[in-house]
Design a protein that fits this description.
This protein is an all-alpha fold. The chain is built from six helices and two strands. A hairpin with a 2-residue loop joins strand 1 and strand 2. The chain is elongated. Bound molecules: cytidine-5'-triphosphate and magnesium ion (MG). Magnesium ion (MG) binds next to loops.
Amino acid sequence: MGVYEIVVIALWAMLPAYVPNNAAVLAGGGRPIDGGRTWNGRRLLGDGKTWRGTAVGILVGAALALALNAVEPTASDLFGVGLPTFPLAVMVALPTGAMAGDIAASFLKRRTGRQRGAAFPGLDQLDFVVFSLLLAFLADPNWFGDVFTVPVLVAVVVATPLLHLVTNGIAYALGLKDEPW
Ligand code: CTP
Ligand code: MG
């Protein structure tokens, strides 16, 4: 497989994990998941992790996977690459993992004394990748092994931080997000 094919498959397969964070930004608000609870004087997660943002993020990611399955033949033709479709368990696992990774990152940020919105370079860009891949693997190990070959995994780890910086930069410029990370 050439680099082009590898990158197209990596981005396609990760799309249901990419959109939940952006959907959560648009939908966020309401009750925080930690209910305001603290641990050693610091918030467990903080006001930036809400039930509504999380639920909408997962739903939007799963709906996108469904839509990608529907357009897969057309997209495969268009890109000239045999793209994968998402089994039901993976449709849920990818966005759920993305949200879980983001929540775990906020937990770590609060434990290290970072206020809501503080940057944590590296963690901010890859937290959701690790968890979404892990949950996708647990949801369907065979599918995972077929799609996420080593070169595709490398492409995911390299391309995701770049994509994350660009989309968050745009969201910040549009006034949708308080910080560009
Ligand atoms: N958001 C949400 N629920 C989530 C994730 C995000 O409601 N599970 C919304 C919140 O309104 C949040 C915004 O999306 O403020 C931006 O997300 P993020 O950058 O992850 O949160 P921060 O506010 O920066 O908080 P943290 O420092 O904990 O990352
Ligand atoms: Mg943030």
